Amino acid sequence: MILCSGVGCTRLPKTARSALPDPIAISENATPLTVPTAENHHANDEKTNLTQLNASEPQLLENLTDEEAIEYAAYTTNSDHPSSSALTISMALQVMLENNPLVRQAQLSQEMQQTLIDESVAEFDTTLSSNLDMRQVNQQASSAIDALGTGQNTISTTNLGNSNGPDLLAFGKKWETGTQTRLAYGSNYNNNNPSGSFLLVNPAYSSNLSLSVSQPLWQGRNQNVNEAPIAIAKLNQARSKYETRETVTDLIVELHAAYWSVYQLQQELTLIQQELSDAEHLHHEEEVRLKLGEGSMVRLTRSLDYVQQLKIELAQVEQRASEAEQRLFLTMGIDQSQTSIPRQLIAEPNSDLIALNVESSREQALQNRNELKIARQKLKTAELQRLQAEDLTKPSINVVGRVGVSGLDSNAFGAIQNASSGNYHNWMMGLNYERKLGKRGEQALLKRAELQFQSAMIELRKAENIINYDVDQSLEQVRKSYEIYQAQLTRSNLLKEQLDIYNKLYHKGQITIEQLVESRGNLLSVQREELLALVNYNLSIVVYHRSIGDLTHRHSI
Q: What is the pTM of this model?
Protein backbone atom coordinates (compact mmCIF):
# COMPACT_ATOMS: atom_id res chain seq x y z
CA MET A 1 0.00 0.00 0.00
CA ILE A 2 1.29 3.48 -0.94
CA LEU A 3 0.98 6.42 1.48
CA CYS A 4 1.66 9.89 0.03
CA SER A 5 1.86 13.38 1.48
CA GLY A 6 3.14 16.79 0.42
CA VAL A 7 6.72 15.71 1.15
CA GLY A 8 6.76 12.40 -0.68
CA CYS A 9 5.47 8.85 -0.60
CA THR A 10 6.40 5.66 1.17
CA ARG A 11 5.37 2.04 0.90
CA LEU A 12 3.72 0.61 3.98
CA PRO A 13 3.38 -3.05 4.93
CA LYS A 14 0.28 -4.59 3.39
CA THR A 15 -1.13 -5.43 6.81
CA ALA A 16 -0.76 -1.89 8.08
CA ARG A 17 -3.60 0.60 8.06
CA SER A 18 -2.68 4.14 7.01
CA ALA A 19 -4.21 7.60 7.11
CA LEU A 20 -4.55 10.37 4.52
CA PRO A 21 -3.87 14.02 5.35
CA ASP A 22 -6.36 16.27 7.07
CA PRO A 23 -5.87 19.76 5.55
CA ILE A 24 -7.12 21.71 8.58
CA ALA A 25 -4.64 20.10 10.92
CA ILE A 26 -1.53 20.78 8.81
CA SER A 27 0.29 24.08 9.28
CA GLU A 28 1.28 26.00 6.21
CA ASN A 29 4.89 26.08 7.42
CA ALA A 30 4.91 22.58 8.86
CA THR A 31 7.93 20.36 8.48
CA PRO A 32 7.60 16.81 7.07
CA LEU A 33 5.03 15.03 9.19
CA THR A 34 5.64 12.06 11.40
CA VAL A 35 2.50 9.97 11.11
CA PRO A 36 1.49 7.20 13.53
CA THR A 37 0.54 4.00 11.70
CA ALA A 38 -0.97 0.75 12.83
CA GLU A 39 1.36 -1.94 14.17
CA ASN A 40 2.25 -4.78 11.87
CA HIS A 41 2.29 -8.10 13.72
CA HIS A 42 4.29 -10.93 12.27
CA ALA A 43 5.09 -14.31 13.72
CA ASN A 44 8.28 -12.95 15.27
CA ASP A 45 6.17 -10.34 17.19
CA GLU A 46 7.93 -7.37 15.59
CA LYS A 47 6.07 -4.05 15.52
CA THR A 48 6.15 -1.17 13.08
CA ASN A 49 6.87 2.18 14.75
CA LEU A 50 5.93 5.69 13.53
CA THR A 51 6.90 6.03 9.84
CA GLN A 52 8.70 9.13 8.57
CA LEU A 53 7.30 10.21 5.18
CA ASN A 54 10.51 11.37 3.53
CA ALA A 55 11.08 8.88 0.71
CA SER A 56 11.58 10.50 -2.67
CA GLU A 57 9.40 9.48 -5.60
CA PRO A 58 12.25 8.11 -7.78
CA GLN A 59 13.50 5.94 -4.92
CA LEU A 60 10.00 4.69 -4.27
CA LEU A 61 9.13 3.91 -7.89
CA GLU A 62 12.27 1.82 -8.35
CA ASN A 63 10.97 -0.76 -5.86
CA LEU A 64 7.29 -0.77 -6.85
CA THR A 65 5.52 -3.77 -8.29
CA ASP A 66 3.16 -3.23 -11.24
CA GLU A 67 0.14 -3.37 -8.93
CA GLU A 68 1.64 -0.85 -6.52
CA ALA A 69 2.67 1.47 -9.36
CA ILE A 70 -0.92 1.52 -10.60
CA GLU A 71 -2.10 2.30 -7.08
CA TYR A 72 0.46 5.12 -6.82
CA ALA A 73 -0.57 6.62 -10.18
CA ALA A 74 -4.23 6.49 -9.24
CA TYR A 75 -3.54 8.37 -6.00
CA THR A 76 -1.29 11.05 -7.49
CA THR A 77 -3.70 11.83 -10.35
CA ASN A 78 -6.84 11.86 -8.24
CA SER A 79 -5.69 12.99 -4.81
CA ASP A 80 -8.63 15.37 -4.39
CA HIS A 81 -11.14 12.52 -4.56
CA PRO A 82 -10.70 10.30 -1.51
CA SER A 83 -11.59 6.66 -1.57
CA SER A 84 -15.26 5.93 -1.11
CA SER A 85 -14.35 3.29 1.46
CA ALA A 86 -13.19 5.87 4.02
CA LEU A 87 -14.54 9.16 5.35
CA THR A 88 -12.15 12.12 5.34
CA ILE A 89 -12.65 15.32 7.29
CA SER A 90 -13.21 17.20 4.02
CA MET A 91 -15.95 14.77 3.00
CA ALA A 92 -17.58 15.07 6.42
CA LEU A 93 -17.46 18.86 6.20
CA GLN A 94 -19.09 18.87 2.77
CA VAL A 95 -21.86 16.55 3.96
CA MET A 96 -22.45 18.77 7.01
CA LEU A 97 -22.73 21.95 4.94
CA GLU A 98 -25.30 20.27 2.69
CA ASN A 99 -27.39 18.55 5.36
CA ASN A 100 -27.04 20.17 8.77
CA PRO A 101 -30.32 22.04 9.49
CA LEU A 102 -28.54 24.80 11.41
CA VAL A 103 -26.58 25.74 8.29
CA ARG A 104 -29.72 25.94 6.18
CA GLN A 105 -31.53 27.89 8.88
CA ALA A 106 -28.71 30.44 9.01
CA GLN A 107 -28.76 30.75 5.22
CA LEU A 108 -32.52 31.39 5.26
CA SER A 109 -32.05 34.12 7.86
CA GLN A 110 -29.51 35.79 5.59
CA GLU A 111 -31.87 35.56 2.60
CA MET A 112 -34.69 37.12 4.64
CA GLN A 113 -32.49 40.16 5.29
CA GLN A 114 -32.39 40.82 1.55
CA THR A 115 -36.18 41.23 1.55
CA LEU A 116 -35.81 43.96 4.19
CA ILE A 117 -33.36 45.82 1.94
CA ASP A 118 -35.82 45.63 -0.95
CA GLU A 119 -38.58 46.84 1.36
CA SER A 120 -36.50 49.87 2.40
CA VAL A 121 -35.50 50.73 -1.17
CA ALA A 122 -39.17 50.54 -2.19
CA GLU A 123 -39.76 53.70 -0.14
CA PHE A 124 -38.31 55.66 -3.10
CA ASP A 125 -40.13 53.77 -5.83
CA THR A 126 -42.45 55.65 -8.17
CA THR A 127 -46.13 55.17 -7.41
CA LEU A 128 -48.94 55.11 -9.96
CA SER A 129 -52.51 56.02 -9.01
CA SER A 130 -55.69 56.26 -11.01
CA ASN A 131 -59.32 57.10 -10.36
CA LEU A 132 -62.44 57.05 -12.54
CA ASP A 133 -66.04 57.38 -11.45
CA MET A 134 -69.45 58.07 -12.97
CA ARG A 135 -72.29 59.91 -11.25
CA GLN A 136 -75.90 60.55 -12.13
CA VAL A 137 -77.81 63.02 -9.93
CA ASN A 138 -81.56 63.71 -10.28
CA GLN A 139 -83.10 66.24 -7.95
CA GLN A 140 -86.33 68.23 -7.77
CA ALA A 141 -86.23 71.86 -8.88
CA SER A 142 -86.94 74.14 -5.98
CA SER A 143 -87.07 77.42 -7.89
CA ALA A 144 -87.39 78.91 -11.35
CA ILE A 145 -83.67 79.51 -11.34
CA ASP A 146 -83.08 75.81 -10.79
CA ALA A 147 -85.37 75.00 -13.72
CA LEU A 148 -83.56 77.68 -15.78
CA GLY A 149 -86.82 78.81 -17.43
CA THR A 150 -87.61 75.39 -18.88
CA GLY A 151 -90.56 74.66 -16.62
CA GLN A 152 -89.08 71.20 -15.78
CA ASN A 153 -89.44 69.97 -12.22
CA THR A 154 -86.41 67.67 -12.35
CA ILE A 155 -82.74 68.69 -12.65
CA SER A 156 -80.41 65.98 -14.01
CA THR A 157 -76.60 66.06 -13.86
CA THR A 158 -74.30 63.43 -15.40
CA ASN A 159 -70.61 63.36 -14.51
CA LEU A 160 -67.83 61.04 -15.71
CA GLY A 161 -64.29 61.48 -14.51
CA ASN A 162 -62.78 62.61 -11.24
CA SER A 163 -64.30 65.97 -10.43
CA ASN A 164 -64.73 65.09 -6.75
CA GLY A 165 -61.85 62.64 -6.34
CA PRO A 166 -58.14 62.09 -7.12
CA ASP A 167 -56.73 62.74 -10.56
CA LEU A 168 -57.48 60.38 -13.41
CA LEU A 169 -53.80 59.37 -13.64
CA ALA A 170 -50.94 60.40 -11.38
CA PHE A 171 -47.27 59.53 -10.81
CA GLY A 172 -45.70 60.24 -7.45
CA LYS A 173 -42.14 59.80 -6.15
CA LYS A 174 -40.21 60.48 -2.99
CA TRP A 175 -36.56 61.34 -3.54
CA GLU A 176 -33.55 60.66 -1.31
CA THR A 177 -33.32 64.39 -0.48
CA GLY A 178 -36.83 64.28 1.03
CA THR A 179 -38.39 66.00 -1.99
CA GLN A 180 -41.81 64.67 -2.99
CA THR A 181 -43.09 65.22 -6.52
CA ARG A 182 -46.44 64.41 -8.12
CA LEU A 183 -47.32 64.66 -11.82
CA ALA A 184 -51.06 64.32 -12.41
CA TYR A 185 -53.50 64.39 -15.30
CA GLY A 186 -57.24 64.84 -14.79
CA SER A 187 -60.17 64.65 -17.21
CA ASN A 188 -63.86 65.18 -16.56
CA TYR A 189 -67.14 65.02 -18.49
CA ASN A 190 -70.19 66.94 -17.22
CA ASN A 191 -73.69 67.15 -18.68
CA ASN A 192 -76.54 69.17 -17.15
CA ASN A 193 -80.23 68.94 -18.10
CA PRO A 194 -81.75 71.43 -18.40
CA SER A 195 -78.75 73.50 -19.41
CA GLY A 196 -80.39 76.91 -19.28
CA SER A 197 -78.61 80.09 -20.23
CA PHE A 198 -76.04 80.13 -17.42
CA LEU A 199 -73.87 77.31 -18.83
CA LEU A 200 -71.63 78.34 -21.73
CA VAL A 201 -70.53 74.77 -22.47
CA ASN A 202 -72.87 71.81 -22.04
CA PRO A 203 -71.97 69.03 -22.22
CA ALA A 204 -68.48 70.04 -21.02
CA TYR A 205 -65.15 68.21 -21.23
CA SER A 206 -62.35 69.48 -18.98
CA SER A 207 -58.67 68.46 -18.85
CA ASN A 208 -55.89 69.50 -16.51
CA LEU A 209 -52.19 68.70 -16.02
CA SER A 210 -50.33 69.61 -12.84
CA LEU A 211 -46.95 69.19 -11.13
CA SER A 212 -46.71 69.39 -7.34
CA VAL A 213 -43.48 69.61 -5.35
CA SER A 214 -42.85 69.49 -1.60
CA GLN A 215 -39.37 70.07 -0.15
CA PRO A 216 -38.53 69.77 3.59
CA LEU A 217 -36.23 72.51 4.85
CA TRP A 218 -35.29 71.03 8.21
CA GLN A 219 -36.72 67.69 9.36
CA GLY A 220 -36.36 65.10 6.62
CA ARG A 221 -33.93 67.14 4.54
CA ASN A 222 -30.75 65.14 5.30
CA GLN A 223 -30.19 62.50 2.63
CA ASN A 224 -28.25 60.28 5.07
CA VAL A 225 -31.27 60.25 7.36
CA ASN A 226 -33.67 59.45 4.53
CA GLU A 227 -31.47 56.60 3.33
CA ALA A 228 -30.80 55.34 6.87
CA PRO A 229 -33.43 52.53 6.64
CA ILE A 230 -31.66 51.17 3.55
CA ALA A 231 -28.25 51.42 5.21
CA ILE A 232 -29.57 49.73 8.36
CA ALA A 233 -31.11 46.93 6.31
CA LYS A 234 -27.78 46.39 4.52
CA LEU A 235 -25.93 46.38 7.84
CA ASN A 236 -28.38 43.81 9.16
CA GLN A 237 -27.80 41.67 6.09
CA ALA A 238 -24.03 41.89 6.59
CA ARG A 239 -24.47 41.03 10.25
CA SER A 240 -26.63 38.06 9.27
CA LYS A 241 -23.86 36.92 6.91
CA TYR A 242 -21.30 37.06 9.73
CA GLU A 243 -23.72 35.28 12.07
CA THR A 244 -24.08 32.55 9.43
CA ARG A 245 -20.31 32.23 9.24
CA GLU A 246 -20.14 32.08 13.02
CA THR A 247 -22.70 29.29 13.03
CA VAL A 248 -20.72 27.42 10.38
CA THR A 249 -17.49 28.02 12.33
CA ASP A 250 -18.98 26.56 15.49
CA LEU A 251 -20.23 23.57 13.51
CA ILE A 252 -16.78 23.06 11.98
CA VAL A 253 -15.25 22.95 15.46
CA GLU A 254 -18.00 20.59 16.60
CA LEU A 255 -17.47 18.40 13.52
CA HIS A 256 -13.71 18.22 14.14
CA ALA A 257 -14.30 17.25 17.76
CA ALA A 258 -16.73 14.51 16.73
CA TYR A 259 -14.51 13.35 13.87
CA TRP A 260 -11.35 13.13 15.95
CA SER A 261 -13.25 11.36 18.72
CA VAL A 262 -14.33 8.66 16.28
CA TYR A 263 -10.83 8.52 14.82
CA GLN A 264 -9.29 8.08 18.27
CA LEU A 265 -11.66 5.27 19.21
CA GLN A 266 -11.19 3.50 15.89
CA GLN A 267 -7.44 3.65 16.36
CA GLU A 268 -7.86 2.39 19.92
CA LEU A 269 -9.85 -0.54 18.55
CA THR A 270 -6.98 -1.30 16.20
CA LEU A 271 -4.47 -1.19 19.09
CA ILE A 272 -6.61 -3.44 21.30
CA GLN A 273 -7.33 -5.88 18.47
CA GLN A 274 -3.63 -6.16 17.71
CA GLU A 275 -2.82 -6.61 21.38
CA LEU A 276 -5.61 -9.19 21.66
CA SER A 277 -4.10 -11.09 18.74
CA ASP A 278 -0.71 -11.09 20.48
CA ALA A 279 -2.31 -12.13 23.77
CA GLU A 280 -4.08 -15.06 22.09
CA HIS A 281 -0.78 -16.03 20.50
CA LEU A 282 0.87 -15.89 23.93
CA HIS A 283 -1.92 -18.02 25.39
CA HIS A 284 -1.47 -20.55 22.58
CA GLU A 285 2.25 -20.70 23.34
CA GLU A 286 1.48 -21.42 27.00
CA GLU A 287 -0.89 -24.21 25.98
CA VAL A 288 1.87 -25.77 23.87
CA ARG A 289 4.39 -25.39 26.70
CA LEU A 290 1.98 -27.03 29.14
CA LYS A 291 1.51 -30.00 26.79
CA LEU A 292 5.27 -30.32 26.47
CA GLY A 293 5.65 -30.17 30.23
CA GLU A 294 7.53 -26.88 30.16
CA GLY A 295 4.71 -24.61 31.32
CA SER A 296 2.33 -24.35 34.25
CA MET A 297 -1.37 -23.80 34.92
CA VAL A 298 -0.57 -20.50 36.59
CA ARG A 299 1.02 -19.17 33.42
CA LEU A 300 -1.78 -20.60 31.31
CA THR A 301 -4.59 -19.11 33.40
CA ARG A 302 -2.82 -15.76 33.59
CA SER A 303 -2.46 -15.58 29.83
CA LEU A 304 -6.12 -16.56 29.43
CA ASP A 305 -7.16 -13.91 31.97
CA TYR A 306 -5.27 -11.29 29.98
CA VAL A 307 -7.09 -12.38 26.82
CA GLN A 308 -10.48 -12.02 28.52
CA GLN A 309 -9.50 -8.66 29.96
CA LEU A 310 -8.66 -7.38 26.46
CA LYS A 311 -11.96 -8.70 25.10
CA ILE A 312 -13.82 -6.70 27.74
CA GLU A 313 -11.87 -3.55 26.87
CA LEU A 314 -12.53 -4.19 23.19
CA ALA A 315 -16.28 -4.42 23.76
CA GLN A 316 -16.28 -1.24 25.83
CA VAL A 317 -14.36 0.74 23.22
CA GLU A 318 -16.61 -0.62 20.46
CA GLN A 319 -19.62 0.72 22.36
CA ARG A 320 -17.99 4.13 22.79
CA ALA A 321 -16.98 4.17 19.12
CA SER A 322 -20.57 3.43 18.07
CA GLU A 323 -21.86 6.32 20.22
CA ALA A 324 -19.18 8.63 18.83
CA GLU A 325 -20.14 7.68 15.26
CA GLN A 326 -23.75 8.58 16.03
CA ARG A 327 -22.67 12.00 17.30
CA LEU A 328 -20.57 12.52 14.17
CA PHE A 329 -23.41 11.65 11.81
CA LEU A 330 -25.79 13.80 13.86
CA THR A 331 -23.41 16.75 13.45
CA MET A 332 -23.30 16.08 9.70
CA GLY A 333 -27.11 16.17 9.73
CA ILE A 334 -27.78 12.72 8.30
CA ASP A 335 -29.29 9.47 9.54
CA GLN A 336 -26.56 6.97 10.22
CA SER A 337 -28.82 4.01 9.43
CA GLN A 338 -29.95 5.39 6.07
CA THR A 339 -26.74 6.47 4.39
CA SER A 340 -24.01 4.91 2.30
CA ILE A 341 -21.32 7.19 3.75
CA PRO A 342 -18.41 5.04 4.98
CA ARG A 343 -17.90 4.53 8.71
CA GLN A 344 -14.14 4.07 8.57
CA LEU A 345 -12.26 7.34 9.05
CA ILE A 346 -9.01 8.19 7.38
CA ALA A 347 -6.91 11.12 8.59
CA GLU A 348 -3.33 12.17 9.16
CA PRO A 349 -2.89 13.85 12.52
CA ASN A 350 -0.34 16.62 12.72
CA SER A 351 2.48 15.59 15.04
CA ASP A 352 4.73 18.63 14.59
CA LEU A 353 4.50 21.91 16.45
CA ILE A 354 2.93 24.60 14.29
CA ALA A 355 4.42 28.09 14.02
CA LEU A 356 2.95 30.39 16.69
CA ASN A 357 3.20 34.16 17.09
CA VAL A 358 1.15 36.09 19.63
CA GLU A 359 1.16 39.48 17.90
CA SER A 360 0.34 38.24 14.40
CA SER A 361 -2.32 35.91 15.83
CA ARG A 362 -3.99 38.81 17.63
CA GLU A 363 -3.90 40.94 14.50
CA GLN A 364 -5.52 38.19 12.46
CA ALA A 365 -8.16 37.65 15.11
CA LEU A 366 -9.06 41.35 15.29
CA GLN A 367 -9.36 41.38 11.52
CA ASN A 368 -11.15 38.08 10.93
CA ARG A 369 -13.32 37.21 13.93
CA ASN A 370 -17.01 37.26 13.10
CA GLU A 371 -17.95 38.44 16.61
CA LEU A 372 -16.02 41.67 16.04
CA LYS A 373 -17.59 42.20 12.63
CA ILE A 374 -21.03 41.69 14.15
CA ALA A 375 -20.24 44.16 16.95
CA ARG A 376 -19.03 46.74 14.41
CA GLN A 377 -22.23 46.35 12.38
CA LYS A 378 -24.29 46.88 15.53
CA LEU A 379 -22.31 50.05 16.31
CA LYS A 380 -22.93 51.46 12.82
CA THR A 381 -26.62 50.60 13.10
CA ALA A 382 -26.86 52.36 16.47
CA GLU A 383 -25.14 55.42 14.99
CA LEU A 384 -27.67 55.61 12.13
CA GLN A 385 -30.58 55.16 14.55
CA ARG A 386 -29.22 58.02 16.64
CA LEU A 387 -29.06 60.17 13.48
CA GLN A 388 -32.69 59.34 12.74
CA ALA A 389 -33.74 60.20 16.30
CA GLU A 390 -31.93 63.56 16.13
CA ASP A 391 -33.77 64.41 12.91
CA LEU A 392 -37.17 63.77 14.53
CA THR A 393 -36.49 66.45 17.16
CA LYS A 394 -36.32 69.16 14.46
CA PRO A 395 -39.39 71.18 13.40
CA SER A 396 -41.15 70.13 10.22
CA ILE A 397 -40.95 73.00 7.67
CA ASN A 398 -41.85 72.29 4.04
CA VAL A 399 -41.96 74.47 0.95
CA VAL A 400 -44.84 73.41 -1.30
CA GLY A 401 -45.57 74.49 -4.85
CA ARG A 402 -47.89 73.59 -7.69
CA VAL A 403 -48.14 74.57 -11.36
CA GLY A 404 -50.74 73.40 -13.83
CA VAL A 405 -52.70 74.04 -16.99
CA SER A 406 -56.35 73.33 -17.77
CA GLY A 407 -58.81 73.43 -20.67
CA LEU A 408 -62.56 73.25 -21.27
CA ASP A 409 -64.56 72.42 -24.39
CA SER A 410 -67.66 70.67 -25.62
CA ASN A 411 -65.55 67.72 -26.82
CA ALA A 412 -62.63 65.87 -25.28
CA PHE A 413 -60.10 66.74 -28.01
CA GLY A 414 -60.87 70.43 -27.77
CA ALA A 415 -60.42 70.35 -23.99
CA ILE A 416 -56.97 68.79 -24.39
CA GLN A 417 -56.02 71.41 -27.02
CA ASN A 418 -57.08 74.26 -24.76
CA ALA A 419 -55.08 72.80 -21.86
CA SER A 420 -51.96 72.31 -23.97
CA SER A 421 -52.14 75.87 -25.30
CA GLY A 422 -50.99 77.17 -21.92
CA ASN A 423 -53.47 80.01 -21.93
CA TYR A 424 -55.21 78.71 -18.83
CA HIS A 425 -52.43 78.10 -16.35
CA ASN A 426 -52.31 78.29 -12.57
CA TRP A 427 -49.67 78.12 -9.84
CA MET A 428 -49.44 77.99 -6.09
CA MET A 429 -46.59 78.30 -3.56
CA GLY A 430 -46.73 78.02 0.19
CA LEU A 431 -44.97 77.09 3.41
CA ASN A 432 -46.06 74.41 5.90
CA TYR A 433 -44.87 74.36 9.51
CA GLU A 434 -45.52 71.74 12.15
CA ARG A 435 -43.95 71.24 15.57
CA LYS A 436 -45.13 69.13 18.44
CA LEU A 437 -45.05 71.08 21.69
CA GLY A 438 -42.86 69.50 24.34
CA LYS A 439 -41.42 66.78 22.07
CA ARG A 440 -41.21 64.36 24.98
CA GLY A 441 -41.56 61.35 22.71
CA GLU A 442 -38.86 62.52 20.31
CA GLN A 443 -36.48 63.42 23.16
CA ALA A 444 -37.04 60.02 24.76
CA LEU A 445 -36.32 58.31 21.43
CA LEU A 446 -33.12 60.32 21.05
CA LYS A 447 -32.00 59.47 24.57
CA ARG A 448 -32.63 55.77 23.97
CA ALA A 449 -30.69 55.92 20.69
CA GLU A 450 -27.71 57.54 22.45
CA LEU A 451 -27.76 54.87 25.15
CA GLN A 452 -27.91 52.12 22.54
CA PHE A 453 -24.92 53.68 20.77
CA GLN A 454 -22.90 53.76 24.00
CA SER A 455 -23.90 50.18 24.72
CA ALA A 456 -22.75 49.11 21.23
CA MET A 457 -19.36 50.77 21.81
CA ILE A 458 -18.95 48.93 25.12
CA GLU A 459 -19.93 45.67 23.46
CA LEU A 460 -17.27 46.22 20.78
CA ARG A 461 -14.54 46.87 23.36
CA LYS A 462 -15.67 43.81 25.31
CA ALA A 463 -15.53 41.64 22.18
CA GLU A 464 -11.98 42.80 21.44
CA ASN A 465 -10.84 41.92 24.97
CA ILE A 466 -12.50 38.49 24.86
CA ILE A 467 -10.95 37.72 21.48
CA ASN A 468 -7.45 38.65 22.67
CA TYR A 469 -8.01 36.38 25.66
CA ASP A 470 -9.22 33.55 23.39
CA VAL A 471 -6.12 33.87 21.21
CA ASP A 472 -3.77 33.77 24.19
CA GLN A 473 -5.58 30.77 25.67
CA SER A 474 -5.59 28.87 22.38
CA LEU A 475 -1.86 29.49 21.89
CA GLU A 476 -1.15 28.20 25.39
CA GLN A 477 -3.38 25.20 24.77
CA VAL A 478 -1.47 24.34 21.59
CA ARG A 479 1.87 24.52 23.40
CA LYS A 480 0.73 22.52 26.42
CA SER A 481 -1.05 19.84 24.40
CA TYR A 482 2.04 19.44 22.23
CA GLU A 483 4.24 19.07 25.32
CA ILE A 484 1.86 16.43 26.67
CA TYR A 485 1.92 14.57 23.35
CA GLN A 486 5.73 14.61 23.26
CA ALA A 487 5.86 13.27 26.82
CA GLN A 488 3.40 10.49 25.97
CA LEU A 489 5.36 9.66 22.83
CA THR A 490 8.56 9.36 24.88
CA ARG A 491 6.80 7.11 27.39
CA SER A 492 5.45 4.95 24.57
CA ASN A 493 8.90 4.52 23.00
CA LEU A 494 10.45 3.65 26.35
CA LEU A 495 7.80 1.04 27.09
CA LYS A 496 8.25 -0.46 23.63
CA GLU A 497 11.94 -0.89 24.33
CA GLN A 498 11.09 -2.33 27.73
CA LEU A 499 8.64 -4.80 26.17
CA ASP A 500 11.24 -5.94 23.63
CA ILE A 501 13.60 -6.71 26.52
CA TYR A 502 10.83 -8.40 28.54
CA ASN A 503 9.90 -10.61 25.58
CA LYS A 504 13.47 -11.86 25.33
CA LEU A 505 13.76 -12.36 29.08
CA TYR A 506 10.40 -14.15 29.21
CA HIS A 507 11.35 -16.63 26.50
CA LYS A 508 14.58 -17.26 28.40
CA GLY A 509 12.57 -17.87 31.57
CA GLN A 510 14.16 -14.96 33.43
CA ILE A 511 10.88 -13.10 34.23
CA THR A 512 7.38 -14.25 35.13
CA ILE A 513 4.31 -14.02 32.95
CA GLU A 514 2.91 -11.47 35.41
CA GLN A 515 5.76 -9.13 34.59
CA LEU A 516 5.32 -9.70 30.85
CA VAL A 517 1.54 -9.16 30.94
CA GLU A 518 1.95 -6.07 33.10
CA SER A 519 4.49 -4.68 30.62
CA ARG A 520 2.17 -5.36 27.68
CA GLY A 521 -0.79 -3.79 29.49
CA ASN A 522 1.26 -0.73 30.43
CA LEU A 523 2.34 -0.28 26.82
CA LEU A 524 -1.23 -0.58 25.55
CA SER A 525 -2.41 1.95 28.12
CA VAL A 526 0.34 4.42 27.24
CA GLN A 527 -0.27 3.97 23.52
CA ARG A 528 -3.91 4.86 24.06
CA GLU A 529 -2.86 7.89 26.11
CA GLU A 530 -0.43 8.86 23.35
CA LEU A 531 -3.25 8.62 20.83
CA LEU A 532 -5.49 10.76 23.03
CA ALA A 533 -2.73 13.34 23.43
CA LEU A 534 -2.20 13.44 19.65
CA VAL A 535 -5.93 13.93 19.04
CA ASN A 536 -6.09 16.66 21.71
CA TYR A 537 -3.15 18.43 20.10
CA ASN A 538 -4.85 18.39 16.69
CA LEU A 539 -8.07 19.65 18.27
CA SER A 540 -6.11 22.47 19.91
CA ILE A 541 -4.90 23.46 16.42
CA VAL A 542 -8.53 23.65 15.27
CA VAL A 543 -9.40 25.78 18.29
CA TYR A 544 -6.43 28.03 17.56
CA HIS A 545 -7.55 28.61 13.97
CA ARG A 546 -11.03 29.25 15.27
CA SER A 547 -9.63 31.86 17.70
CA ILE A 548 -7.92 33.80 14.87
CA GLY A 549 -11.05 33.51 12.71
CA ASP A 550 -9.73 31.71 9.63
CA LEU A 551 -11.51 28.34 9.87
CA THR A 552 -14.05 29.14 7.16
CA HIS A 553 -11.33 30.70 5.02
CA ARG A 554 -9.19 27.56 5.28
CA HIS A 555 -12.16 25.53 4.08
CA SER A 556 -13.03 28.10 1.36
CA ILE A 557 -16.46 28.79 2.86
A: 0.70
